[in-house]
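Incident log, structure service

09:12 report received: a user says their structure output differs between two submissions of the same chain.
09:20 pulled the input from the user's history:
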Amino acid sequence: MTGFVLASASPARLQVLRSAGLDPFVRISDVDEDAVAAALPAGTSHEGVVVALAVAKAESVAAALIAERADVIADCVVVGCDSMLLVDDVLQGKPLTAEVARARWAVQAGRSADLLTGHCVLRLRDGRITRIAHDCSGTRVHFTKPQPEELDAYIATGEPLQVAGAFTLDGRGGWFVDGLEGDPSSVIGIGLPLLRRLLGDVGLSVAQLWVRGAQLGSDATA
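09:34 re-ran on a clean worker, output below:
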């Protein structure tokens, strides 16, 4: 059966996939995202940046699995993703500090912005990459204006510090999103409609992976 490797530490991406019937093997990449972005040619589009980061993550994990001769490389896909919020023509990743998160909310509160998520799918067969597909999904996010005490409390939780755009749709940040235009799963970090298409591009039906997830679940119960 074809294995599914998620090249991400994101618990939100993992939960989206599990809720959709998959049981991914998680392997975190060691990519220096700032270095990858800095090495891109001048004039690279915003979509091109997040796709390049997704490709770098997937390729890093695939290379590590191949080097280790892991059993999964006999037949698997490796999926990498990268999300950023586009505000005023500037890509915003994780704020990392409370000060930066507060500054970003001062700009985006009460406005709309585009959440871009780059996706990369690598197909591995017999220990080598045989096919690759990648693309970007974009979703328009309409933010409300949190009250000062609400924003203080939200930032104090630490939740917005480690996520693109300083908000989560599937967590406390969801209280401050008025609406979306596009794919909600992409805002969470991995777009199911786009991922389904990319899996098809590398020769897989998502239904094949549902079977894999069901078998893993049965084995775990036995």
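09:41 both user submissions now match this output. Likely a transient worker issue. Closing.
09:42 reviewer note: Residues 196 and 206 are 6 Å apart (CA to CA). The chain has a mean pLDDT of 92.
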